[in-house]
Design goal:
The structure is a homodimer. Helix content of chain A is about 55%, strand content about 10%. With about 325 residues, the first copy, chain A, is α/β, with parallel strands linked by helices. Chain A folds into three domains: about 50 residues, Single alpha-helices involved in coiled-coils or other helix-helix interfaces (Up-down Bundle), CATH 1.20.5; about 210 residues, 3-Layer(aba) Sandwich (Rossmann fold); about 45 residues, no CATH class. A seven-stranded parallel beta sheet of chain A has the order 3-2-4-1-5-6-7, with helices on both faces.
């Protein structure tokens, strides 16, 4: 052992230009590395990420972005495994899967979960699976996901799936970065505890009842009819599209074509009436507004005077000697 | 008709001091006028509101703040009418009711609705009912409601009820400005469409199944047992309190004491373990943070250069020639 030489590999140095070239040529390592920059909070990383994203935005593509949500236990990962393989094998697509999870505690589980549950998809050369960032605010995580979508598209992925991992918080964010929002549900009792609120159903462009197999098939068919009736009561979506309801079984790998036909029909519908493009522009504009708020917030708390004064005013507020609004006004007098 | 004299009443001039004195003496007109200032967007009104709020915060009181939510049709207004009258008549309380509704479209209906549905409570001298502000962002509306709560308390109201009027958006805000969060529910089929998501159930300190009367009583009893079982699966609340489930009928005016006993038990529990006060302090601190963000945002869009540049950058983003993050950074370079 004495004479054994330890050879330390020299860390490869990436530049924005080399990563852009790598992404354009479909290199997975370059794509991963660039996404890591998007997820970073380091200013130099963020600047580099921004350069890459701006370059990637110029690369034409014809992608569709699909948001997928549903409560834990509905079988999201198995569905994405089945659906992703269908898209690759039957439709000739390249599929990227991103997860978004604002709760860092749950994330550790989901990384392991994604890797083990999507075991066929994750090793397919036409698929790219990226677990959710391990930390950060929902705003930060969503920002990184928006950038990651653009990078995946520049790398040639024509279907980008964004999966909500946490419960309740991230649906609106995912809806705002995708073209089509798919809600997975289960048939049977206890639906009121499944986290399905009217607001989320209203967001959905498609609703699939998963685990429609074996003994569960009849209940799933009944649920499908019920949801179809229920959806009639909902106000019409801005897209002019009527939410579709279908059945599938990720376990038995059935009706994956139903899912894809639903999404293709939506794409055709929304491209022909102009909503597809309008929606993408609205999403860019709202991302712009969110970026403004984020940068403002960040600059504020980098300011030395704010850092020094913050606790002084916070204590005054908590002790009841100053109203929160007055305290905020006085704190900001030192900044603006 | 020719000789008829039109007498124009001279508009009464209010000062912050006169309104503070009026509120302290329990004058409803002064209270209403001050709440209107809290809801205003005019800087001079906001300053005056701030002075009044800071003064009112100093007035000791022993109030409890109750948030009430539930989907349309659950009977929120009838419940508040019944419950409010019970508190006044059986418990000797003074009751203020505030509504919070971020969707201005629905508000017109709710103002009319509040007045007609709470017809006994609204004319009782120990009750004060304030419809929700007619416009503004959720943030602005919530800010006004937080201030209004403090004003009502200074005016001697010992129970302040904050009712969510809109669906899905305002629950979290109302939870963050109250001590006890009550979820009204209905028994029977279709619960999954009632807007009850796990997240909202998790927020609730108490759950009341309304319309537990007549033919509906059995279903309500069954639902009560089911919810009690279901709540066992939920993680323990930070307060250490176990969510209570009960039945009531606003129509038949039954079990209003059950509702009050639930809330009183919570108050006793959370005051004895210190959570009551900790929670109020946390709420003040989070209100402080929100005020900072609001003022920053407001100052930004008052800035002439930002106003002039905003559309230039927004157009670059929408046309895809600049990433949202880069655009936001460049826009803010002119401000900070």
């Amino acid at each position: 052992m004495k004479n054994k030489k330890y050879i330390r590999k020299k860390a490869k140095v990436y530049t924005a230009e080399s990563l852009i070239e790598g992404i354009k040529s479909g290199n997975f390592t370059a794509l991963s590395k660039a996404i890591t920059l998007c997820e970073s909070k380091k200013p130099s990383d963020r600047d580099m990420a921004s350069t890459i994203v701006s370059a990637c935005m110029q690369i034409e593509n014809n992608s569709i972005r699909i948001g997928i949500t549903g409560v834990p236990g509905v079988g999201k990962s198995s569905f994405i495994e089945s659906f992703g393989l269908h898209l690759i094998q039957a439709e000739g697509k390249k599929v990227a899967v991103l997860a978004i999870d604002p709760s860092s505690e749950r994330t550790k589980g989901s990384i392991l979960g994604d890797k083990t549950r999507m075991n066929k998809l994750s090793i397919h050369p036409n698929a790219f699976i990226r677990p959710s960032p391990t930390s950060g605010s929902l705003g930060g995580v969503a920002h990184a996901s928006r950038e990651s979508i653009l990078l995946c598209e520049a790398a040639g992925f024509d279907v980008v799936i964004v999966e909500t991992v946490g419960v309740g918080q991230s649906e609106t964010e995912v809806r705002q970065m995708t073209d089509f929002f798919l809600l997975l549900m289960l048939a049977g009792a206890g639906d009121e505890l499944q986290g399905i609120k009217r607001g989320i159903m209203e967001m959905a462009d498609g609703l699939l009842i998963n685990k429609a197999d074996g003994d569960n098939l009849k209940a799933a068919q009944l649920a499908m009819r019920e949801y179809r009736n229920a959806l009639h009561l909902f106000p019409k979506a801005k897209s002019g599209w009527t939410t579709q309801v279908g059945l599938c079984s990720a376990l038995e790998n059935t009706n994956m074509d139903v899912a894809w036909n639903m999404i293709s029909a939506y794409e055709k519908h929304s491209k022909s009436n102009g909503y597809f493009l309008t929606n993408r522009k609205d999403q860019l504009d709202s991302w712009f507004q969110k970026s403004i708020e984020e940068i403002l917030h960040q600059k504020l708390f980098e300011n030395e005077k704010i850092k020094a004064d913050y606790h002084f005013f916070s204590n005054k507020v908590i002790s009841g000697s100053l109203s929160p609004y007055d305290a905020a006004k006085q704190l900001l007098d030192g900044f603006l």
